[in-house]
Design goal:
Structural class of chain A: mainly alpha
Number of helices of chain B: 10
Strand content of chain B: 15-25%
Largest sheet of chain B: 7 strands, mixed
Distance between the termini of chain A: 22 Å
Largest sheet of chain A: none
Number of strands of chain A: 1
Order of helices and strands of chain B: HEHEHEHEEHEHEEHEHEEEEEEEEEEHH
Oligomer: heterodimer
Order of helices and strands of chain A: HHHHHHHHHHEH
Shape of chain B: extended
């Protein structure tokens, strides 16, 4: 089962990164992260938490773009029909698609390693928060990609899928910020549901079970949601 | 797909979502963390955890600091840790510039001030650091402030001196641990130690103590006083009249330790033998005592114990002015006791009983901490090795206080990186220009190579066709 899912993932990673779209997105992501790095370092401190923080938001947008290709783009080009008729189960297809978009995202994240490396060359940053920052980016990326894949499976329009998944992720993100104005149990629940409240630990250098469980749960819900959408479309 | 299959699928989904919800609730309730930041900056100490266990009513923490920037986010994150440990604790960060009325209401005059309110009481903490906040909580829970009297007038370093030889860090440490430090000058002929003093600190007199002062201190100790005496052979003060009645002798001289010293200076001794079970040694693994002198522990009454001793290779040079640091026949071989504690209890009859059921006797308990070095707690050395903890432990033991919250706060260290225009240009050049440019160039190169190969293949195919045509007729 894993081999088939990985084969789909490899195919998707290649199709993203060997396309002008993927390279353009990746280069743009890296360039933006470079600008954010300079903005963060204006505090004259070799701290990268202020760099990682907006990177999570940009990662959500990049995840939307990468995951769009999973189903919406396949359907637009007509290759989804071929894929659906292939002798592999729907779970493998979903897992392969999420791993593919996630893998492409991890490659984009890997290119940004140049930023902390450059800071380490000229100063002495704390390695702990850098390690946890990237751990958080990978976990959050997997969750964001899963949400994007659900939206991508639900539509055959590239534009609708991209804007839809971006809107869902940004609503989740800023929902936590808006929850700050509320009080009581509703505030607690809304804050918990927002990814923004689960990245703080990664920025500070701590790994918590709660944050890891949250992002993995979001990824799992994405898998289940995609499976349901595919089932409904059959 | 059969409807039965779909029902099973839906049931499986519902079960999976339920498992996700239960997993998240469980993780929220019990959230183990791994702190990978340097010096565990965001892990609250066991002392703070124990302290928060005693908070049984709503405790509000309000931090006044600029709401943006790393300091504010660090503060928020730290205060959230307190809330996680005890949900009676609630917190907020208020920007005094954005909410000047709120700042005025609390009387806030400096950034980074934290106000803590608990059961109608209110204390302020000077910074948003764990040590400061936990101390403020301790002060709220304790509900009273002990007074520690610091003797002056005999050349002792000043509590207000922030230079390397001053004691401003000691003053801050006392304040942060809910003590009020009161300078007392007994050299002016004051007859007795003020009754408000929970303990008296004699921190390095440089000249002999006047006889009335010695008498006042002797009388204070005899009546159950608590005192810390820091002395050195580099000063002309002789502490023996004060110490010998309690079984401690000041040997003087200069302790040299070739085995354990900082750098090449044998007199800058690192003490690693802390043999006592006394709470003063608790949590202390090593001390830095510059130019220490030796002590002789000879308990005549009560219990006296050596708190710190140098290595067996150390020795006391009685004449350090001679210039030779090598061990010579007149030197006292180690290990040398450089810090000691005395704890003497006795039952005192105070005459007639004050009332029915009240005993006419009471227990007087004298406690004394003596260190043969008078510079280890100055600003230049207090934060070295376990010096800070040793000092705080000693004050806590002398005043019968609970274990204090000591230096548990590890603020994320200062990691300067001056962003010069040249560095900024380099960073942007590489991260915005060179690396993304390389990615795009490689993609273009690959695309060009593919196109070239395709063109070559097309040309080859085009060349082959006419040849075939020529052969067919033949």
């Amino acid at each position: 089962m894993l081999a088939q899912a990985l084969a789909i993932a490899r195919r998707d990673i290649r199709s993203i990164w060997l396309s002008a779209f993927g390279v353009g997105c990746g280069a743009g992501f890296l360039a933006l992260s470079g600008v954010l790095l300079v903005v963060d370092l204006r505090a004259d401190q070799a701290r990268l938490d202020g760099w990682f923080s907006p990177l999570f938001v940009i990662e959500a947008l990049l995840a939307s773009l990468f995951s769009v290709r999973s189903f919406a783009e396949e359907e637009r080009t007509g290759s989804l029909e071929i894929l659906m008729t292939m002798p592999l189960g729907p779970w493998r297809l979903v897992a392969g698609k999420i791993l593919g978009a996630g893998g492409a995202l991890v490659i984009a994240l890997a290119t940004t390693v140049v930023c902390p490396l450059m800071v380490a060359l000229v100063a002495n940053p704390d390695p702990g928060p850098i390690l946890t920052g990237y751990t958080g980016l990978v976990l959050a990326g997997l969750a964001f990609v899963s949400v994007g894949v659900v939206v991508s499976a639900a539509t055959d329009s590239f534009l609708v899928a991209a804007t839809g998944s971006s809107a869902v992720l940004l609503a989740l993100w800023f929902g936590g910020v808006l929850a700050g104005g509320l009080s009581g149990r509703l505030r607690t629940v809304l804050t918990y549901l927002s990814p923004s409240s689960h990245v703080t630990g990664f920025l500070r250098g701590t790994l918590s079970l709660e944050d890891a469980v949250y992002f993995l749960s979001l990824a799992l819900l994405g898998v289940l949601g995609t499976r349901l959408v595919l089932e409904a479309r059959r | 797909m059969t409807s039965r299959f779909r029902r099973r699928l839906l049931l499986g989904m519902v079960l999976a979502v339920s498992a996700v919800v239960i997993g998240n609730v469980a993780a929220y309730a019990h959230n183990p963390e791994l702190d990978l930041s340097s010096a565990d900056s965001f892990t609250l100490s066991s002392q703070t955890t124990a302290l928060l266990g005693q908070v049984r009513h709503p405790l509000q923490i309000t931090a006044f600091l600029t709401a943006t920037g790393p300091a504010a986010s660090d503060a928020s994150y730290l205060l959230a840790r307190y809330h996680e440990l005890n949900h009676y604790v609630s917190w907020s960060v208020v920007d005094p510039d954005a909410n000047p009325g709120e700042a005025r209401r609390y009387g806030i005059s400096a950034y980074s001030t934290v106000v803590l309110s608990y059961q109608g009481r209110r204390v302020t903490s000077p910074d948003v650091q764990e040590g400061d906040i936990s101390t403020a909580i301790l002060r709220l829970l304790r509900g009273r402030t002990e007074t520690v009297c610091v003797l002056t007038g005999d050349g002792e370093p000043s509590l207000s001196d922030s230079g390397p030889n001053g004691l401003s860090d000691v003053s801050a440490l006392l304040r942060q641990n809910a003590f009020e430090s009161l300078p007392v000058d007994l050299s002016l002929g004051v007859a007795a130690v003020p009754s408000a003093c929970s303990a008296v600190l004699e921190m390095g007199p440089q000249q002999p103590l006047p006889t009335p002062e010695v008498s006042a201190l002797e009388s204070y100790l005899r009546s159950g006083g608590r005192m810390m005496v820091l002395t050195s052979s580099l000063s002309s003060a002789d502490p023996n009249p004060l110490l010998q009645p309690w079984g401690i002798g000041f040997l003087g001289g200069l302790v040299l330790d070739p085995a354990r010293s900082q750098g090449v200076d044998w007199s800058d001794v690192v003490v690693q033998d802390l043999p006592s079970l006394s709470p003063v040694d608790q949590g202390v693994s090593s001390l830095q005592f510059p130019a220490p002198s030796g002590l002789l522990v000879n308990p005549t009454q009560g219990t006296a114990s050596a708190l710190a001793a140098t290595s067996s290779q150390s020795y006391i040079d009685p004449n350090p002015q001679s210039g030779s640091v090598a061990f010579s026949p007149g030197d006292v071989p180690g290990p040398i006791v450089v810090a000691a504690a005395v704890d003497v209890s006795r039952v005192v009859t105070s005459g007639a009983a004050a009332g029915p059921g009240v005993s006419p006797t009471h227990v007087e308990r004298t406690r004394l901490v003596v260190v043969g070095c008078d510079t280890w707690m100055t600003n230049g050395f207090l934060n070295n090795l376990g010096n800070r903890r040793f000092f705080a432990n000693a004050v806590a033991w002398l005043t019968d206080q609970d274990a204090l919250v000591v230096a548990t706060s590890h603020a994320p260290g200062d990691r300067p990186l001056p962003l010069t225009p040249a560095l900024q240009f380099e960073l942007l050049g590489i991260t915005v220009g060179a690396v993304p440019g390389s990615m795009i160039s490689l993609a273009l190169l690959r695309s060009a190579l593919i196109r070239r190969r395709e063109n070559r293949d097309a040309a080859r195919r085009a060349r082959r066709r006419p040849v075939r045509r020529r052969r067919r007729p033949g």
